[in-house]
Amino acid sequence: MFDTESIASTDIAAPRPGYPDRAALFDISIVIVSFNTRDVLRQSLQTVVQETGNLKIEVFVVDNNSRDGSVEMVHSEFPFVLALSSAVNLGFGAANNLALKQARGKYIVLLNSDAFLRPDALRLAFQHMENAPKVGLAGGRLMSRDSSWQPSARMFPSLRSDFLAMSGLAHRFRDSRFFGYSDRTWADPTEPAQVDWVPGAFSIIRADALRQVGFFDPDFFLYSEEVDLCRRIKNAGFNIMYWPDIEIIHIGGESSRQMNSFEMSHVGAQLTRWRMRSTLLYYRKHHGSTAWRAKMLELLLYKLIALRNSFSSSQESKDKVQINRKLSRLMLQAWQDTNGGRISPPRPWTLD
């Protein structure tokens, strides 16, 4: 069952700390953030329609100032959707906050516009949360179109996990509990587990948990926002769960794996800089001076990789030298952008 009201909004006021204390009117509020993703957004909404079943659901699409006709498509093809439009690109967390201020569901489902619900996903998510009152947030099993598994249940970042990931050791020894700790690549993905955080492509959140901890921290424009939210929910005494019988097709992870090599294009460099900014903001917020150590760790690794490749005359090695030197410069820029993780640059972060 859907709410048939349709609204448009350009309100980008700061979110309130949490929901007003009121009874839930819906079983689930689904929130989808879109930025120039009209065609996959249509597919995502189609799976929502297919999987609603007997659940009482309201659906929000928050458009981050798209230019591809996404809002018009939603209004014409999905009139039951509550369409919120921002005049600027707010990023992932702050855009979700626009809908969270209005959501009236007992649970909130966050769904990427390039993520598609598999059969029974919503019913199972609702049922699991009903049966596990100590769970504040949970995720499902993310898969590519070919049904291959994507990392879906993770542990909080640490300097150790950063080193293992950037050095390639985590990928090389995926079956090791030590090396594969962060992404739990050693674990059986068909087994449910209590974890630290789940990716934002799909998650179901207890509204009562958000009442306690508040919404997404808008300082995280892109990257680390779901990690921060999960940490706050865990700190409030709730559990974070991974339930593999909730299956989601996620195109984003599929696309990233198809990149055989990292090309330091202008856009790629800027997204990397954004990731670095968010990493520094996260470490400063939750671990204080560890932000400085995180910066130094990345700089050291980039320097060592560049040094190792400088002894080879192959073009591939020369390219790696240049890429890692550029990564070092990007980290120094990110450190300056955020004053060492203490401040977030004004939104929207731009591809300058």
TrEMBL record:
EC top class, as a word: transferase
Keywords: Glycosyltransferase, Transferase
One Pfam family matching this protein: Glycos_transf_2
Known EC number: 2.4.-.-
Boundaries of every Glycosyltransferase 2-like domain copy: 29-155
Stored InterPro entries: Glyco_trans_2-like, Nucleotide-diphossugar_trans
Molecular functions per Gene Ontology: glycosyltransferase activity
Protein's UniProt name: Glycosyltransferase family 2 protein
Species lineage: Bacteria, Pseudomonadati, Acidobacteriota, Terriglobia, Terriglobales
